[in-house]
Amino acid sequence: MCDVVGSTLQGIGLVYIDASVWQMLRGSIIVFVGILSKIFLRRRLWCFHWTGMMVTVFGLCLVGVASVFKPTTESLITSPAKAALGLLLVLLGSLATASQMIVEEIFLKKHGFHAMHVVGMEGFFGMFVMGFIILPSIHHIPGHDLNGSFENQLDALYQTFQDPVLLSTTILLVLSIAFFNYFGLAVTGSLSAVHRTLLDALRAVFVWCSSLFLFYAVSHRFGEPFDPAWGLIEIDGFCMLVMGTLIFNKILRLDWIPCCGDSYNSAPAIPEESVEVPGDSVTDDSSEKKPLLAGDAAAHSGTFGSVNDQVTSIQA
């Protein structure tokens, strides 16, 4: 359900903002994941975690301001109000996606599910909700589509199977989503949900470069132009997003800041696989999982501290 809600909100938001801005705003997931892991997984967030999240929020503000106020001559954005609506929808969608990652981490690490098992459950549940609830509902809601439907599903299926290009694109989309979900879960299971957001944030570079290439090399009907004024602010915002993610994951250290320097010494040196979930307790090392893509390799680690350290503290 989180995936359905998140994908829907982000898809609608994409209508009102550029693809590069949409991809950059997905960097907000690390903020939501950090806060939700604090609430539901009872993880301790140190000073550098909060600093990374604040830097990320500042970057989101720069990207949002640039997308709202930059010229819209060559863009599908029709007004600053609609651009702001798109930003809000994407952020709400990111919150739903972050919730999904937290739930996935609980299933993968606390309950020992395999990544393929979780992907299968998500796929079955998503197919059931979309096939038997959402799509039939919008088919019977009055609208301006064929036969007075809001979205005529029979007409959509007919058009898909009558156009080889559309059919092949649909099949490739399904396959790409399947592989993306599996490898995303593999990262979550081997590391943590926060590490997954680090790789996800870097996709904005490729999306923005692709948009610029399409606009200047293919046709002005595709992609987006680079605005010299607001585009630089957008670049600054993206750099802040990446910097916030690096600070959060202790890749970029801030030892010169007193509170952050002390937190580096206090925080566990080895990332923690999982912490106690409300209603559960860890009593032995059996909860440790192996890397999902490494066969019988040694047990992996997660985000904020070693499992052995945590077990000792709980038993004490």
UniProtKB/TrEMBL annotation:
Q: Does the keyword Transmembrane apply?
A: yes
Tell me where the transmembrane regions lie.
Answer: 20-41, 48-69, 81-103, 115-138, 165-185, 197-217, 229-248
Its localization reads: Membrane
Q: For this UniProt record, give its keywords in alphabetical order, as a comma-separated list.
A: Membrane, Transmembrane, Transmembrane helix, Transport
Q: Which GO terms describe its molecular function?
A: transmembrane transporter activity
The principal location of this protein is membrane
Membrane topology note: Multi-pass membrane protein
State the GO CC annotations: membrane
InterPro entries noted in UniProt: EmrE-like, SLC35_F1/F2/F6
Superkingdom of the source species:
Eukaryota
Pfam families, alphabetized? SLC35F
* UniProt keyword DNA damage, yes or no: no
Look up the coiled coil feature and give its residue ranges: none
Task: Write out the similarity annotation.
Answer: Belongs to the SLC35F solute transporter family.
According to UniProt, the name of this protein is Solute carrier family 35 member F6
Organism (species): Schistocephalus solidus
